[in-house]
Structure formats: structure tokens, C-alpha cells
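Archive transcription. Copying these from loose printouts into the bound notebook so they stop getting lost. Printout 1 of 2:
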Amino acid sequence: MTYKIYPLDLGTFEAMETSNLLYQVNPGVKVRQPILAWLILGGEEPILVDTGGSDEEWAKQYHHGLQRSSEQTIEAQLQKHGVHPDEINIVINTHLHWDHCFQNNKFKNAHFYVQKKELMAAVVPLPTQKGYYETEIAGVIPSWMETFDRMKVVDGDSKLREGIELVHLPGHTVGLQGVLVETKNGPYLIASDTIGVYENWEGNDKLAHIPQGIHWSLEDYFRTFEKMEKLGAKVLPAHDMRVLEHEYYE
């Protein structure tokens, strides 16, 4: 079984902090980067990886500004590929930060695959990660919790379907998981925020690979880089405009 991977453009962060994307690189420099999800086609049914962030008002009030046009809604992005949210039975949440799972509740028939360690961390996060999990907003149920009753808990690396594997990649969060997908031209790893932009994986003159500034454990992060090297897959980042230069990956 081989698949095609379609990036979904779910909005734009207008001023992402570079040092959040690349540890200790260009602090204070702001960049414009997308919020991405991924649609995997070619199997028996469509599979969605992540569901994106909130609308503009919510982001402005509780997080930081983003822009999202009518063409960047999850419904519009899926419609481009002839898929309706009600046809999605499998959603893979790479992790439970708000900009990756906020629209889970749009998928009424889906189960949501999430790592056990990620779910535990979302309930009791590190102080530096409370905002990303939305656990510190008085009177607000975190977006990931709205579909708690339909979560399928995964503990470590796991085969989801023939040609699709869930790969535990701790570092950015303790329970982040990537999605390893077999395609016509070899495997791709949807690496989520382990690799926010291509430079995280490509490195610089000091580091072979650069962690994100937002992380749970640097020690885990560097072990994850070693694990990714052994996979031998092409890597797809979570917040890089260059991803959208291709309609699909295969």
C-alpha cells in the first residue's frame, strides 16, 4: 500500500518568534509561518493528521495572532480533495498543543489517536507548557478535552495501517508522535513540531539538527533526532511555508 500526503493550510501565524522555532537562533526576529494539517489518501479511507488551531478571535484573546481566511478552514481544505469531515474516522493528534488539535470537535465520527504520555502531560503540563495545552484558562475546557471520550491511547511506536506507523518522538512535548508514511518514492515522516521548519532538521554550523525553543526535554529531543536518522525518511515540518509549494508528497 502506498499513499499520497496532502498538506492542509489552516491559517498563518503572522509573527512567530524565530527562537521558538530554532533554539537560541535569531531571538526577536519574527517570521510568517503556516498552521498545517495533513490528509493521507490512497488507502481504504482518508486519514487526517492534526486538525489545526482556533479562529482569529480565540487566538488573539488566549494565544497570539493568526490569520485564517474562509479558504483556510478545515472544511474548505478537505473539500479541495473531495472529503467531508463526517467521512473522517481516523484523526492522528501528533500532540495536544492548541494549534494542532483545536478543531477535533469538527469530526463527529472520528477516533483520535494520541500517545499515553501526551495525554498525561496535557492534564498536568510543565509550567512552561500550560498555555499551549490551554490548561490555565479559567472557565475554559481545553480544546483537546472536548473529544476525550473518543481518544485511542497509544503507548510508544505502533503500526496504524499497512504502510502507516505512529512513531514516538519526545522532545518538543513528552508524548509527541510523528507519522511514518510509505509512498511511491519512499517513506515520509510527518514530524509535527519536532521539526517546525526545515532548518530544524538541516542544522547549521554548530548543530546537525536544531531543537525548537519550545521543548519539554532537550535530552529526549537529541535522542529523537538519532531515532529519526535511523528511519531514513524524508521529513515534513509543521510550520514551514515551503511545504505548501507542493500539492502533495509521494
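Printout 2 of 2:
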Amino acid sequence: MHINYEIYYFVNKFSKKEIEKLQKNIIVIYRNYNNSYTEKDIIEYSKYCKSLNIKFFLANNVKLVNKLNLDGIYIPSFNKNLNCNILRHKKISIVGSAHNLREINIKKKQNVDKIVISPVFKNTEKNKKLSISQFNILTMNNTKKKYIALGGINHFNIKKLKMLNCIGFASISYIRDNL
């Protein structure tokens, strides 16, 4: 995977074996919504990533990201809370996700640095997808933010990212399958 983009890898389960195989420019976003984790777990995961010079973001836990001074936070589209500004005084990167213009506007109010737009390409889990032109229309009027493509990225369509107004992409299976 020799692409000149920011790359975000979503993980629901932290695996040291998987993480150690990653290229150094890949950012890990831990978004485990189904199982509980402890502060001790997050400290361990963060330290492990830092030892490999890999950035570690935690999903949807502003207080813990702030307390542990992690590299970044991922704010999912379902989080409409506007109290993310407590992170502004620190150098914590804030990435949020959106699926439409209304959600993009919420992410702008949350003062995110980058917005993950999905789904870009059709994938096996969901039939919905944006077209390349729809993605670009959503992002064109919001040029002050940086955008990341998510959804359905594979060997066949990764070259199409060049046609998108994005600085990178996020994935689960594409990155995992190409370790």
C-alpha cells in the first residue's frame, strides 16, 4: 500500500500482532462500542502504538482522550454533542464522521479537524453509497475542512480516490487484508 494519503484503520478489537504489521503512517482508531474497556486498557494500547511510532485515536470518549492526552479522538456521526471544544487547548486531533450535509454541519460545529465521509463506494455490508460526484459536491462547499473517504475501498477502486476531494481514506478490511 504505497499511497500518498493519510490512512486511518478502524479496529474494534486491539491486536498487537495486527498493529505491529502496520506501516508507520497508518493511524489506528479504536472504536469498540460493543464491549467495555478500562482506562488501563487504553493506556496500554496507546503506549504500544507510541512504541511503534503509530498514532492512536479513541472513539467517542472526550473525557478519556483529554485525561490521557491521546493523539486524537474520533467522533462518530451519531454523536451530536457539541462539548468537544475542551480538546482545543491541547494538540489533540479531532476527526468526525458524517454521511450527509446536515451531519457535516454538526461536525463543523463540533470543531473537528477532519471529516470522514461515508459510504463512498459500495461494500458488502450496505447497499448505499455516494458517487464520486456526490462526495465532491458535499465537500466542495466546505473547503475549510479536510476530508477522508470511507466505505467499500478495495484494490479495484483505490485509484479512484484521486478523483475525490480528500486527503486520505479510512478502512477496516482493506487495511487488515493487506497487512
